[in-house]
Amino acid sequence: MRIVGAYELDDDPARVDLDVVWKHLSTGVYWGKWRDREQVEKVFKNAWRVVGAYEASSGRLVGFARAFSDTIGSAYLADVFVVDEARGAGLGKELVREMIDNGPGAEFRWMLHTADAHGLYRQFGFGDPPEGQYMERGRANGQV
Predict the structure, then answer these.
(1) What is the domain class of 2-123 according to CATH?
(2) Which of 17, 95, 97, 109, CA to CA, is 20 to 30 A from 122?
(3) What was the pLDDT predicted at 116?
(4) How far is CA 83 from the centre of its chain?
């Protein structure tokens, strides 16, 4: 656990309030609205690592990040969010830092997709893939 101002960052999955995660992913972000509750619970259960941001005074979950990994050399960062009322305190940046720099994947090659947070992730060394080294097949159903 790490203290950041009035918040605690913790990678204990037992502490995560899945009701908050489900609510935010199903209504608050563009990339999660197509998933149902069962799918959100499944990706949570199968995550390699999760990091939650909690209000220190109440223990309430106010931010979240999830990763899946081969556990050896690469990981994918997903579902990073901070609830509206906790934004502006740098929690998004601290969630990313905790996940990719302060955990067991600090030496990994990290990947992610984003439509609107390029500035955040560039601060951590994310950038466009080298020419000709990255390929992707989009979702068959056209979902983000």
Answers:
(1) alpha beta
(2) 17
(3) 87
(4) 13
Quick check: 97 and 57 in contact, CB under 8 A?
A: no
Q: How much is the pLDDT for 28?
A: 81
Residues of the chain with pLDDT under 50: none
Count of residues in the chain: 144
Report yes or no on whether pTM surpasses 0.70: yes
Return all residues near 62 (Cβ < 8 A) that are at least 6 apart.
7, 53, 54, 55, 82, 83, 85, 86, 91
Domain ranges of the chain: 2-123
Helix (H, G, I), strand (E, B) or coil at 4: strand
> Is 18 in a helix, a strand, or coil?
helix
* C-beta separation of 86 from 62 below 8 A: yes
